[in-house]
Design goal:
about 270 residues; alpha+beta; elongated; binds Dihydroxyacetone; binds zinc ion
Length: about 270
């Protein structure tokens, strides 16, 4: 038995490799974090080493105090995670204030958790408030979604509506819509605050000219959400490449009908007349 046989560790590694195979993780692009369950902490405890030094997170997440996370390492390549997870990822523990972390496993050749740790943890905190079941925060450099941030207005309602129109499954997969953050310097507290504000309302936040954050209960749902949004963006890029206008599309009335049959609530703010 090794830590690599533990189910959530396998799920974490598989998501990294799936993202790499999608082409969303050039070089060291993207990062992933997982908020571990109590029983999972106990499951991996035999494999944890003497704690490293406490280091500042760079923000404060008091409602995540004493929690454990598996996260990708700063500067590490998603491409390598499946080959050497102990080099590319780590398990960290937060202190009793939610202001510092220490490494308990992984990053065996040195390094620190993802440069986006403040955004990840602030998103986890917001999502945990909303619903204890949220455990995964995933950031990827999704090509088509990024392309759209150069040509669509950076408004939540425009991105949501345009992405919904591209595939009938979309309003069912992300009925709350998607949020958009204008270009900001990555890695710091400001972009973390802006993103976590959007995560109060949405499971998806798009960073203009950079990528996407997705959140979900487990690896399948979170990867599936990222994949669905990015696929929809790819269709939109193709449509806009063929023609500046659509000859036909899914209409607001169609969406309202769909909402009834599929039992989802679609906010009228996204069903505006164009
Ligand atoms: O390189 O994606 O946003 C990691 C990142 C930073
Ligand atoms: Zn990034």
């Amino acid at each position: 038995m090794s830590i690599l046989d533990v189910k959530f560790v396998q799920g974490f590694i598989r998501l990294c490799n799936d993202g790499w195979q999608q082409g969303w993780h050039e070089r060291n692009g993207g990062n992933l974090s997982y908020r571990m369950k109590d029983e999972e902490v106990e499951e991996v405890r035999p494999f944890l080493h003497e704690p490293g030094e406490w280091k500042e997170i760079g923000t404060s997440v008091p409602d995540l105090a004493n929690e454990y996370f598996m996260v990708t390492g700063s500067g590490k390549y998603f491409r390598n995670v499946i080959l050497d997870p102990e080099d590319s990822t780590c398990i960290i523990e937060l202190d009793d204030k939610g202001e510092n972390y220490r490494i308990l496993w992984g990053l065996v050749n040195g390094g620190r958790p993802t440069s986006e740790l403040p955004s990840h943890l602030m998103n986890h905190e917001v999502k945990k408030h909303k619903n204890e079941n949220y455990r995964v925060i995933y950031h990827a450099h999704t090509t088509n979604t990024i392309a759209l941030t150069f040509v669509l207005p950076l408004k939540d309602e425009v991105f949501t509506r345009e992405l919904w129109e591209m595939a009938t499954e979309c309003p069912v997969v992300f009925p709350d819509g998607v949020g958009v953050v204008s270009w900001m310097v990555p890695g710091g507290r400001d972009i973390a605050i802006a993103t976590s504000e959007l995560m109060k309302k949405y499971d998806v936040a798009i960073w203009a000219h950079h990528g996407m954050f997705a959140s979900g209960y487990d690896f399948d749902l979170t990867f599936g959400l990222m994949h669905t949004v990015e696929k929809s963006a790819e269709i939109l890029v193709k449509v806009m490449s063929m023609s500046p206008t659509k000859l036909q599309t899914i209409t607001p009335k169609n969406f309202r009908d769909l909402a009834v049959d599929f039992n989802v609530k679609l906010s009228e703010e996204f069903l505006y007349e164009k």
